[in-house]
Amino acid sequence: MSKADQDGFDGPERRRFLRRKAEMPARIVMARDTLVFCQTRDVSEGGACVRRPQRFRVTIGELLVLAGEGILGTGRSARVVHASGCLVHCAFVV
Length: 94
Description:
By secondary structure, the protein is an all-beta fold. It has a single domain (18-92), classed as predicted glycosyltransferase like domains (Thrombin, subunit H, Beta Barrel), CATH 2.40.10.220. It contains no helices and seven strands. The protein has strands at residues 20-21, 25-31, 34-43, 47-51, 63-68, 76-84, 87-92. A six-stranded antiparallel beta barrel has the order 2-3-4-7-6-5.
């Protein structure tokens, strides 16, 4: 079965990497001394979606570091690819 045939959150997945629900504490590291505490919504080998605090804003294309449990570990460089409501969608940078 290809990834395109697998059912995702709201229908068939058309992503390179399968997303997994992952509700866990995380941190957005913006600068050496700037941490924003957040919660992951889902993760994959290629990126993550996090719930951000209401007053925290990012722009599409912005680089940041996501840190936390599991795949995030002590920090993964990521680029913001989409932001909607309280969610920030990031792609890991290799």
